[in-house]
Write a structure and sequence with these properties.
Blueprint lengths: L3 E2 L1 E4 L11 E5 L4 E5 L7 E5 L6 E4 L4 E8 L8 E5 L2 E4 L5 H34 L2 H11 L1
Parallel strand pairs: 2-3
Antiparallel strand pairs: 1-9, 3-4, 4-5, 6-7, 7-8, 8-9
Length: 141
């Protein structure tokens, strides 16, 4: 497939009806929605987070990273959105899809486990006095 242009619109909430070739971006909900770029008409939702997609906005265009692989859709389309341009990628095999899903799960688990450990530490240090922190440190040493 050849590349195509896509427009974008910043919105407060994702509209019920999505237009073809347009990304709807809601910062409040950290989500982007669009109709699949292959033309199948299916809605595609990409959450923005440290373990999902990242949005780059340069004031004129948007890019999403990583690629969008619609593995749960019948079309199984796979593409990048770079500076308002859809760039088609090769179709993954079932083994590549499973490996990608497993890698995503591992990355999410590692990220959130590290985050919860840091949050627990910083909260407990603020909540306790010096002697409680010292006792906690000695127990964990």
């Amino acid at each position: 497939m050849k590349s195509m242009r896509i427009s974008f619109k910043f919105v407060e909430a994702i509209p019920e009806k999505l237009e073809e070739h347009r990304l709807y971006i809601t910062i409040d909900y950290a989500t982007i929605a669009h109709k699949c770029c292959c033309g199948c008409g299916q809605e595609v939702v990409t959450p923005l987070s440290p373990t999902d997609w990242k949005l780059t906005y340069d004031g004129v265009s948007v890019s999403l990273s990583p690629s969008i692989g619609n593995w749960s859709l019948k079309c199984q389309s796979h593409y990048w959105i770079v500076k308002n341009e859809v760039r088609w990628a090769y179709q993954w095999s079932p083994e590549e899809i499973e490996a990608g899903r497993a890698a995503d799960k591992r990355a999410k688990k590692a990220y959130y486990e590290a985050g919860s450990e840091l949050n627990t530490r910083s909260t407990s240090h603020r909540a306790h006095g010096f002697w409680s922190r010292l006792a906690c440190w000695l127990r964990n040493s």
